[in-house]
Structure formats: structure tokens, C-alpha cells
Design goal:
- The chain is of the alpha+beta class and 160 residues long.
- The chain has one domain.
- Helices cover 35% and strands 24% of the residues.
- It is built from 5 helices and 4 strands; from the N terminus they run H-E-E-E-E-H-H-H-H.
- It has helices spanning 2-17, 80-83, 90-96, 105-119, 146-159, and strands at residues 33-43, 46-56, 62-73, 76-79.
- Strands 1-2-3-4 form a 4-stranded antiparallel sheet.
- Strand 2 (46-56) and strand 3 form a beta hairpin.
- The longest helix is centred in the first third of the chain and has 16 residues, at 2-17.
- The radius of gyration is 22 Å and the shape is globular.
């Protein structure tokens, strides 16, 4: 038994010492770095800017995404993500969504961030008849995410 364990130990040690060929490294679709994008939305009295920061790792994969939206209310700029529960979207999300207790804006944005990282981009995006992103594609989102997707697309264009 000791000889078998010794043999297996040597095999694992030798396997760990075998150099990895450059061809063995899987590469993603993007250029490593940090990229930013934005999308301006103006409708009636509403004006806001959706922003995206996309981090691409050394192998070309999307490692992290940070999404936010800023809007002006009473002459003061507000970050929807920073407002957290004070944005007060949970009640609406609970009414129209499938999330027990609803989800706040920042929680829904985080679900979208995770989806973009998991899917390594926006190829999964589909649009409804009104030209809005089909929100059902993102588990945990009930809000309109078109502006955030457009901001992300802008950042990813830079990463290509």
C-alpha cells in the first residue's frame, strides 16, 4: 500500500512539473483592461446616464462588471446603486415580478452584472416589440435594463 501511495505521489508531482504549452491557455474574446461605457436617456422630465465599467482579465475574459445609473432629482444627482433601499423600487418589483418580497434596483443591477459575466458578454440579449431588452432573460430583474445593456455594449466595443 505504501508503494502505491508513493507511486501516485510521484506521478502527481511529475504531472505538476510538466510545463503548460501556450496553446493550452484558453483565451477570451476581449482585450485585457478596464473599459467604461455610458448611455444617456432623456424622456420628458427625466434625464439620466447609465454607466458600465467592465474589467477584462489577462486571458481576455470578463472578470467583473459594475453597473449604475445617475439621475437628477430636485436638482441633485443621485446614484441608483448607492441609494440601495432608498431608491424604493422593491414594492413595484414585488407587484410585477416573481421575486418574493421584490428586489431593489441595486439587487437587480447585480443580477444583470452576474449574467454578463456568466455569459461573457451580451450575445444572450433579446428585445421585445417596444425595443426594450427582454428582462425575463435575467433572473431577479423586473426593471427596464435596456440603458444598462447599451452602456455595457459601449464598454465592450472598446474591449474588442
Amino acid at each position: 500500500m505504501k508503494k502505491i501511495l508513493l507511486f501516485l505521489g510521484i506521478v502527481f508531482l511529475l504531472a505538476a512539473c510538466v510545463p503548460v504549452e501556450d496553446n493550452d491557455v484558453i483565451e477570451g474574446d476581449y482585450t485585457p483592461g478596464m473599459y467604461t461605457g455610458y448611455y444617456v436617456q432623456e424622456e420628458g422630465d427625466y434625464a439620466g446616464v447609465a454607466t458600465a465599467v467592465v474589467f477584462v482579465d489577462e486571458n481576455g475574459f470578463i472578470a467583473n462588471v459594475y453597473l449604475d445609473a445617475t439621475y437628477i432629482k430636485d436638482g441633485i444627482p443621485h446614484s441608483k446603486k448607492a441609494l440601495g433601499d432608498d431608491y424604493n423600487m422593491r414594492w413595484r418589483s414585488e407587484q410585477i415580478g416573481v421575486i418574493p418580497g421584490g428586489a431593489e434596483w441595486d439587487e437587480q443591477a447585480e443580477a444583470l452584472e452576474e449574467k454578463i459575466v456568466t455569459e461573457q458578454g451580451l450575445d444572450w440579449v433579446s428585445y421585445d416589440d417596444e425595443g426594450e431588452v427582454d428582462v425575463d432573460a435575467v433572473s431577479g430583474a423586473t426593471m427596464i435594463i435596456t440603458e444598462l445593456v447599451n452602456a455595457t455594449a459601449s464598454a465592450l466595443e472598446e474591449a474588442n
